[in-house]
Amino acid sequence: MYRKILVRYGEMSLKGKNRTYFEDILIRNMRNALQGAGDYKITKTFGRIYVDCTEDNWQIIADKLSKVFGIVSMSPVLETSLELEAIEHAALALMQDNPKGSFKVAVRRSNKRFPFTSPEMNQRIGALVLRNFPELTVDVNQPDIQLNIEIRSEGTYLFNQVIPGSGGLPAGTSSKAFLLLSGGIDSPVAGYLSLKRGVDLEAVHFYSYPFTSERSKEKVIDLARILAGYTGKQKIKLWVVHFTEIQKAIQQANYPELNITVMRRMMLRVACQLAEREKALALVTGDSLGQVASQTMESLATINAVTNMPILRPLIGYDKQEIIDISRKIDTYDTSILPYEDCCTVFVPKNPAIRPTIEQALEAELHLDIQGLIDEAIEKTECLTVSNIIRPF
Amino acid sequence: MQVYLDNSATTPLLPEVAEAMKPYWSEKYGNPSSPHSLGVECERALTNCRMYLAQLLGVNHQELIFTSSGTEANNLAILGFAYNQRKPGHIITTSIEHLSVLNVMNHLSEQHQWQISYLPVNKQGLIDLKQLEAEIRPDTCLISIGLVNNEIGTIQDLASIGQIVKKYNQQQQQIVLHVDAVQAFGHIPLDIKKNNIHLLTVSGHKIFGPKGSGLLYCDHKVRLQPLFFGGGQENGLRSGTENLPAIIGFTKACQLAMEEYNSRLSQLKLWYNQLLEHLTEIPDHFINSPTNGSPHIINIGFIGIKSEILVHFLEAKGIYVSMGAACSGRRQSISHVLQAIGLTPEQAGASIRISLSPFHTRDEIEYAGKIINETVNEIRSIYQ
Question: Which residue segment(s) compose the domain that A206 sits in?
Answer without folding.
Answer: 176-387
